[in-house]
Amino acid sequence: MKFFALCFFIFGLSLGCSKKEKPSSDNKVLRVMVSKSFLAKDGISKLLEDSYYKKTGIKILWLEDRGIFSVLTRLSGKKGIVAPDILMGITPEQIEILKKVALQEVITFKKKYEPEIFNVSSKLLAYNYAPVTFLKKANEQVRVLKYKTLEEFIQKEDGLLLQNKETSSLGSLFYDWALNQNLSAASLEKIKNQNISPSWSKSYGLFSQGVGNFVFTDLTSLYYHHHVEKNHDYAYVSIESGHPLHVEYMGFLNSSKKIDLFIETLFSDKIQSVWLSKNYMLPTYDYEKKDLSEQSLPRLKLLPYKSPQNKL
Amino acid sequence: MIILAFLFLWILPFVFPFFYIENFSLNVLFENSEWLPVLMKTHSQAMMSTLVSLFVGLVLFCMSFYLTQKQTRYFLVIMLVPQFLPSLFIVSSFMSWFELMNVSISGFFGVVFFHSFVNAGLVCFLLSISFSEKIKAIFFGNRIYGLKDRSVLLKYGHKFFNKNMFFIFMSVYLLCFTSFSIPLLVGGSGFDTLETFIYKKILHYGRLDLAYFLSLIQWVQFLVLFSFVSKVKSEKIEFSFVKNIQFYPSSFWGRVFYVFTLGFLSLLVVPLLKVFNELKVNYQLVIDIISLTLKSLMPVAVFIVFNFLFFMGYSLLGSDSFVKGQKIRNQVATVLNSFNGLGVFFVVLPMFYFSLFVEQKIFSTLILGIVFGVVYSPILFRFTQSILDKKIEKWSLVSNIYKLSFMNRFVISYKELKTYFVPVIFVGSIWVLSDFGIASLFVSSNENLAVAAMSRLDRYQWQEAYLMMGFVSLLGVLGLLKIMELNEYSENRST
């Protein structure tokens, strides 16, 4: 009986404690929907949350993206659903899905914080980016592997670790890249036979375990290996015809003072200065000014950044 | 009251789609025919896994002929261990061996391999409890008439064993057919069973309507398959715990097979050495495991409270009248059993949907505990109903004669069911602690041990996943030993 009493006690205690957590009113909490990786323990979310709280006295409630169903239901506007105020981690490929969602215009902030190149919609604000490439484990002497075109790279190399275009934004980016480069039928057939994982984390996990030769990833993965792991035994692929950009946007479901303050906090020097070391993506804010070599990242030739065909 | 609430939770899946799923129509099944090959694959992996499990289980059973009585008891316990271990732990320990041998087993063969590893011991155990006495009688007859054991078994064995073998076959087939975690962990991107297909349809594509119908299809198939098992079981298959096995006492082969058994277990334990060697002293991981375990206790506590109320509620049903009580319990049991094996997502979907209405994490965890209760309680009930009914009948007759008050009936019921509760709830709690599939829909990897282990394994950090689930496995093994101890105690008491 004591055991069951203890279980009842834990249950009751948890419910009791939860009352303290309860936000006093809707104005005292800002709901932000983000991906799992954004909420990593040593990531940027904690710092952002603290800075925002200090500035406004408002708590950030992070809503984790648990798949497309949870995102769409939260954005459906149904009565009683806990909907986010801000949606982060949107990629241009997801614009089609967001068409039904009533996002707010953010033109003022776009003028202030977004370089013209990233402008895809008046309702989305870019906040971080990274060129994408392939990484390979190599010794310290080999830093770069050069190819003229994506076609040449695919024809010459084997053991590529890619992501599924339907379940991963990077996968979808690679798919678009391959289509726009007019790859030959043989190359497209070869791509089909490579190792395709449902997510970036899965393919990178395989790569870390020594499976495959090349992994498709953000160039900023190099930063992680160099600065966190202190490991320089990685080579990156440089393709002369150019690399696409992986850009993430945020959208706003309502307009209010607390959202404006969130944007200001996010683009503050304090947060932007540690963005790369905490979130492993480059901040879009100083895209034109930033010299990547300061971050020990190579400069790759970039493809012109295209707006998606579907506009919001 | 709790039973009514319980039944309400089961009615919820049937009414849920009509209110909350947009464009809810059966056409979705015809527009997306990709589920048909998946269904075929699910049955073919279940068939292959069952056949391999039966073959390996039979070999293990034959090996047990050479063991002494004491060795047999330990042998069977060790064979049952994989059933009590989280699949995350088993997969992560094998990843260590695969890494060592530089091989990778995934997809169809990976699923069959792991299903066979987990179920072969169960087959051996079921064979032991159903055949040992019969085989012993045959061997005894052979000694009298001077016949050869092997030829008699091959010629007439099927006459004795058909029903039991069918029961064992169907039980293992059902386990493999509804298995979720192993196909999700080792199936890879190219191989799906119906359960993992449904899970991915919800998570990656938001196809709630398709997921719902497929869960319904799975449930119907389960009921059909389960009806075969129930039919055979109702024809009174005899099971008896092994008392005097040791058909061919041989000290040499006995020792060899005994060492083999320990080797079987060491497949799971040896990676520990490698993990310690690689991770050195990782205090952060230890702190993470402790804090995640504490966080995971909340749904476990809710699950235990739910089960306690559920089983107590069931035992007190109509307890003021002996005959009426039996009748009500029979009716409720029929309803509960008919909902048994309900396609998991059939139940989880509405609860997952409602969790999006709550803001505080604590309520998501609370809902998770209730979902575990709704999903796992009928399974626990199915496995233990006959023991439970016997216990209830015993005390309810006495309490009716003395016309005891409700409170007294409650106290007596609790005291009588105490020895039953401990192992049942313990096993259920291990399931809850190691369930990452359902949990990942409700809580994040920062809030739950199994989800955290799954996310580590997802990134192929099997060492960390191994340690996390190793802790739960240790609890599972302790639980198994406790159950064996209780079993011995009750056997001695009844003697």
Describe the structure.
The complex is a heterodimer of chains A (312) and B (495). Chain A is α/β, with parallel strands linked by helices. Chain A has twelve helices and eleven strands. In chain A, strands 1, 2, 3, 4, 5, 6, 7, 8, 9, 10 and 11 form an eleven-stranded mixed sheet that branches. Chain B is an all-alpha fold and 495 residues long. Chain B has two domains: 27-269, MetI-like fold (Orthogonal Bundle), CATH 1.10.3720; 271-495, MetI-like fold, CATH 1.10.3720. Chain B has helices at residues 2-20, 27-31, 35-63, 69-84, 87-101, 107-145, 149-177, 181-186, 194-203, 208-234, 251-269, 271-279, 283-316, 322-338, 344-355, 361-401, 406-434, 439-442, 449-458, 462-494. Chain B starts with a helix and ends with a helix.
Strand percent estimate of chain A: 15-25%
Radius of gyration of chain B: 24 Å
Largest sheet of chain A: 11 strands, mixed
- Written as H for each helix and E for each strand, in order along the chain, the element string of chain B is HHHHHHHHHHHHHHHHHHHH
Mean pLDDT of chain A: 83
Shape of chain A: globular
List keywords for this structure.
heterodimer, A: 312 residues, alpha/beta, D-Maltodextrin-Binding Protein, domain 2, 2 domains, globular, B: 495 residues, MetI-like fold
Topology of helices and strands:
The complex is a heterodimer of chains A (312) and B (495).
Chain A lengths: L1 H20 L7 E6 L9 H13 L2 E6 L3 H8 L10 E5 L4 H4 L8 H7 L10 E14 L6 E4 L2 H7 L3 E4 L5 H12 L4 H8 L2 E3 L2 H9 L5 E5 L2 H8 L5 E6 L5 E8 L4 H10 L2 H11 L2 E2 L29
Parallel strand pairs in A: 1-2, 1-3, 5-9, 6-7, 6-8
Antiparallel strand pairs in A: 3-10, 4-8, 4-9, 4-10, 4-11
Chain B lengths: L1 H19 L6 H5 L3 H29 L5 H16 L2 H15 L5 H39 L3 H29 L3 H6 L7 H10 L4 H27 L16 H19 L1 H9 L3 H34 L5 H17 L5 H12 L5 H41 L4 H29 L4 H4 L6 H10 L3 H33 L1
Helix pairs in contact in B: 1-15, 3-6, 3-7, 4-6, 4-11, 5-20, 6-7, 7-10, 9-10, 10-15, 12-20, 13-16, 13-17, 14-16, 15-16, 16-17, 17-20, 19-20
